Amino acid sequence: METILTVNHLTKKYGYLTAVKDLSFSIEKGNVYGILGPNGSGKSTTLGIVLNVINRTAGDFSWFGGSISTHDALKKVGAIIERPNFYPYMTAIQNLKLVCKIKEVPQDKIEEKLEMVGLLERKNSKFSTYSLGMKQRLAIASALLNDPEILILDEPTNGLDPQGIHQIREIIKKIASEGTTILLASHLLDEVEKVCSHVIILRKGEKLYSGPVGEMLTTYGFFELKAIDGPALVTYLGNHPSFGPIKQENGLITAILKEEMTASSLNQDLFNNGIVLSHLVKRKESLEEQFLSLTNHKD
Ligand code: ADP
Ligand code: MG
């Protein structure tokens, strides 16, 4: 595995406010990472620090295993962290030619990149005639002109209509499928779920979870139960090694599983132990519920 970016105990303070707190994670080549968190959780600050546009307060980061300077490393990074800004009276082609001159990269990739983002047919239209979605796609094409190792996007679908959102997500998936590593910040759980292979969840600048998107669902679910003899049920569950926390609310008992168990085996087990249920439902939290509980929880 090749590490593209390593972030170690990064902290950023703005006066008394800690925007990023002791954050560590690493980005491996070929994956699509989402930094997921509600507004104000420190996503843009984190991206700004690793792109050298925001100074860190403590901690450090290194690109490509630290083998080259940050200045040289950033030449291999494509990033869009602001609203796309091009010359309105110039066409897509003219704007991208200018970008090539500024970045000192050859112009021979322009058409290929416009094709990638679905703008080849509109290459001779002025930027001012583009919709917001097209502007965003042009920005992606522009960020790809130097064939970066990694593409960084901050809230890439903000402000777009549903069709525009869908187009951007498809383009991100296509870029990833061709081997470019991607790091995107988003406050939208479904965006991260749809586009990313890995996720780093932030809340108030702190990491709550990082790992494969699929493994966010590792919980084995929970049972909602009622019994004729409630206290006996609670005692039994409390002593059972397969269960974590037991909650009671309005006579309904919620028991969170620490390992796999079917509803029928629990029912049988309880009956054998003289506990008769009047209500039994097995549920699995959706990713959304988990995200909400991760981000709303513990103040
Ligand atoms: P996100 O991108 O997740 O919405 P940000 O990284 O933009 O979050 O912001 C994290 C926190 O830092 C927020 O509370 C925000 O108000 C604060 N913040 C960001 N930039 C500045 C700044 N230049 N000065 C003071 N506070 C800032
Ligand atoms: Mg932001």
Automatic annotation (TrEMBL):
Pfam families hit by this protein: ABC_tran
Which keywords has UniProt assigned to this entry? ATP-binding, Nucleotide-binding, Transport
Per the record, the domain of life is Bacteria
Cross-referenced InterPro entries, in alphabetical order? AAA+_ATPase (IPR003593), ABC_transporter-like_ATP-bd (IPR003439), ABC_transporter-like_CS (IPR017871), P-loop_NTPase (IPR027417)
Q: Does the keyword ATP-binding apply?
A: yes
Domain ABC transporter: start-end pairs: 5-229
GO MF, one term, reads: ATP binding
Question: Which family would the database say this protein is a member of?
Answer: Belongs to the ABC transporter superfamily.
Q: Can you say what this protein is called?
A: ABC-2 type transport system ATP-binding protein
Q: What is the species of this protein?
A: Arenibacter troitsensis
Its ancestry begins with: Bacteria, Pseudomonadati, Bacteroidota, Flavobacteriia, Flavobacteriales
